What does this fold into?
Amino acid sequence: MVIEQLVWIRNDLRWQDNPALYFASLKGPIRVLVIATPKQWQKHHESEAKTGLRAGLIRCLFSKLASLGIPADLIEGEYFEQVPDILRQYCQDNAIKHVWYNQDLPIDERQRDQAVNQALQGIHIEVHPQKPDLIVSRPVLSQQGTPFKVFTPFYKRWLTMLNEQSIEPLLAPKQQADALDKQPLTMAWQRPFRDDLWKPDQDKASQTLWQFCHRKEGQYDEQRDFPMTPGTSTLSPYLALGALGPRECVYAITYVCNEQGRSWQDSVWLKELAWRDFYRQLMGHFPTLSKHHPFKPETDQIVWRDNKAEQLAWQKGQTGFPIVDAAMRQLNKTGWMHNRLRMITASFFSKLLFADWRRGEQYFMSQLIDGEFAANNGGWQWSASTGCDAAPYFRVFNPTRQSERYDTNGEFIRRFVPELKSLDNKSIHNPSTEQRKALGYPSPIVDYQAARKAAIEAFDRLKNHSS
It folds into this structure.
C-alpha cells in the first residue's frame, strides 16, 4: 500500500472531529507524525502536568491508530526551529507527497508553520493547512471587517455564524488496513500528573463531556462559581491538548438541549466556550499579544511593584488570605484551579500586590495542566485591566467577601488549608490575629483597603496622563 498523505498532529491529539485527519483520509491512505519539542514547551512555560497528559494522550492516539491500520511515528526534536528539517527528511524518507495539519494561532507556532510550508514546497510537497481548532473557525469580524475588541458583540456575531455552519463532528478515519502491532513509545520528557483526575484517553474525555451535558450543563450558570460544587465540566485539559474537538462540545450541547426542551443558544457553558474562541482569535489578529505586550498599550507605562517575597507567598499559598491560599494550593497540588478562584487569585496578584500580571500569567502556565496560551493570557489581562474587554480598573476583588459568598461554609478552605479546619464558618474567611498565631497561619501580607486604593490611584494617574 502506497501512502502519500501525512497528517502532522500537534495540539489536536484525537482521532475524531479532527479536520486534518479526516480530510487527508478522504484522499487516500494516511500515516501520522507527531514531533515532540520538549525544550520549546519549557520555553513556553508549559507545566510538567500538561507535558505528562500530552504523553499519555499520544500513547492513546497511537494505540487507536494502530487498531485502524494507520502507521504513526513520534520523532523528538527540541525547539520549533528544528521542525522544518525533521519534516522535510521524514517526507523524503517515506515518499510523502501531501502534508496536512490544523493551523495554530500564537505567533511562534505560525512562524514554525510558515517555515515548514517553505521547506516542503521547496521539495514539491503539497501542504494542506486546515482551519484553526475553534468552534467558529472563520474570522469573526464586525460589519466594517475589523476584529471585535469587546466580547458581547463578538458573541452575537459568533452565534449567528455558528447557526450558519455544520456542527456535526467529523468522523474518525475508517479502517485502513489490518491492525498494526503497537510500537513501544519512548518519551524521556514524560512527567507525572494527576491521572486519577484526568485519564489520558479520548474516549474518557468524550464520555465526561456527554455526562456533563446530560447532568450539569443546564445548571451550570447557578453552580459554576462555587469551588466545592462539582458544577464545571473539568474538560479544559482535554481541550487544551485537543483530545476533545470543539465541534463535539457544541454538538453535545445542542443534542442534550433539544432533548430537554431548552434553547441551546442560551447555554451559558456555550458562552464560556465562545470566550475561548474570542481569546484565540484575538491572538491571531494581534500578534503583539504573543510577545508579552498588553492589549491596551498605555498600560505598559504602569510601574508594577516587584516584591519578590510577596509574590513567593502568593505562589506557595501563604498570603494570609484563606481563599487565595486555598486556591493556590489547589493549583500546586492538582495542576488545576476553579475558574472563580482564577479570577480571585489573579486580581489579588495584579491589583492588591500590584505585581506585573506577566509574572502571574507565567506562574499559572508553569503549573496548569490546562494551560492554554491565549486563554491564560486573556484571563490575566482581564484581571489586570490591561486587556481586551477587561474588568474596569477600579474593580478589585475583595478576597474575604468573595470567600464568604462562594465558599460560605469554608469547605473549600478546609480542604486545602487544613490548619484552619477547626475554625467556625465565619472566622475561617479572615481569622483573628490570635487564631492565626495559635494555628501557625500567616498574617495578611497586604492591607486590602490600602492596596485597593493604591491600585486605583495608579490607574487614575495613567488615565489622566493619557487624556
Notes: The two ends are 68 Å apart (CA to CA). The chain has a mean pLDDT of 96. The longest strand covers residues 30-36. The CA atoms of residues 388 and 417 lie 34 Å apart.
